[in-house]
Specification:
18% strand; lipopolysaccharide transport protein A fold; single chain; 368 residues
Length: 368
């Protein structure tokens, strides 16, 4: 069955329509619970407005949405296949000599394109919303309405520049609403290729402007030479505000398009980028996961007859299988994150299992 045939367009229209209906319904439920949680948090607080609570509730959805999208694909496919089976349209399609795989091909392409649209267009928006949520959550906990980025644990970044390595540390840092980054007790240590210290800068205060640290009350430390004191010193680096943010935010707050540069930065600096690699590969594999969920729904719902308790049993089993796959994937993901299994295997294993099981069951169903 061709992707642009009349029958394909008819079924794809049902699938995509059901997808957005289920998606918006679940979104509304999540928003309601987030609003309740936000109102609970701001109760008795005179420094927090309802507008802040609304922003908190909306931005908090961003992380949950990506978790529920595979389940939305499963449920929407189940509804679509149930309607087709109930109206005997599937019986007519099969009687016309169309195999199950030919019937599913345009649906698989449509759900795959939805998955691609998710990672290419929706994910950058969701990552920004999640970063915004982290800021709002900090503002709420710290009672500081002007805070944008703050860490009382300080900053520690390793940067490779040409034939030298920089170790940049600060005891505390803060970004206010006009994007100025302020740091206290900052030190910059230069190491050569043999990891020997060649030069050090210590400042009581610093600001970051673009890629330049403006150090105040600086002490220049060079081995075998007297300590040099300077009032101001501009130290150029490749570190910028985005890199500092990435030092604190979770990979979920970094968009699909920014992850490759972030991974390259961490690896060039000598840090492990395993968590970011897993996030990136997980996004790449997500359209195939949606297709796997569609195939799983077809296994349970594409039957010539669906009546009474048999239908309810199939619905319950398919949803239980979906949740089982999710929890199993989280366990495998944790093994990959801790280095017990290769990253690609931890990310791809659940999707591969779904595809293999669904394909084998659909082959048997096609022979009936």
């Amino acid at each position: 069955m061709k992707f642009f045939s009349i029958l394909s367009r008819y079924i794809n229209r049902q699938l995509i329509g059901n997808f957005f209906i289920v998606f918006l319904s679940v979104l509304g439920i999540i928003l309601m619970f987030n609003a309740i949680e936000a109102l609970r948090k701001i109760s008795g607080r005179d420094d927090v407005t309802l507008w802040f609570a609304a922003q908190f509730a909306v931005t908090r959805m961003s992380k949950t949405i990506e978790i529920i999208i595979p389940f939305v694909a499963l449920v929407s496919a189940m509804i679509t296949f149930w309607k087709i089976s109930k109206s005997n349209e599937f019986v007519v399609i099969r009687s016309a000599g169309v195999s199950i795989f030919n019937f599913l091909r345009p649906l698989m392409i449509a759900i795959f394109l939805l998955g691609m649209a998710n990672i290419m267009f929706f994910n950058p928006i969701a990552s920004k919303l999640y970063e915004w949520y982290l800021v709002l959550d900090y503002k709420l906990d710290s009672h500081d309405p002007n805070a944008v980025l703050f860490s009382s644990k300080g900053l520690w970044i390793r940067e490779s520049v040409g034939d030298k390595v920089l170790l940049i540390a600060a005891k505390s840092l803060r970004q206010d609403s006009d994007d100025a980054v302020w740091m206290r007790d900052i030190s910059i240590t230069e190491l050569n290729q043999t990891s020997q210290i060649t030069k050090g800068y210590e400042a009581s205060f610093a600001t970051l402007d673009g890629n330049i640290f403006h150090l105040k009350d600086v002490k220049l430390l060079i081995g075998g030479q007297p300590v040099q004191s300077m009032t101001d010193y501009a130290y150029e680096t490749s570190i910028d505000l985005q890199r500092i943010k990435e030092n604190f935010v979770e990979p979920d707050a970094i968009s699909f398009w920014q992850l490759p540069d972030t991974i390259a930065f961490y690896e060039s600096a000598g840090f492990s980028a395993r968590q970011h690699w897993m996030r990136y590969l997980n996004l790449l594999i997500s359209p195939f996961l949606l297709v796997g969920m569609l195939m799983m729904a077809a296994v349970f719902m594409l039957q010539n007859t669906l009546r009474g308790s048999s239908l309810m049993l199939r619905v319950v089993i398919s949803i239980a299988v979906g949740f089982g796959i999710y929890f199993a994937s989280q366990i495998v993901y944790a093994f990959g994150l801790n280095g017990y299994i290769p990253i690609w295997l931890a990310v791809a294993a659940p999707t591969m299992i779904i595809w293999l099981i669904s394909t084998s069951l659909l082959v048997r169903l096609d022979e009936v």
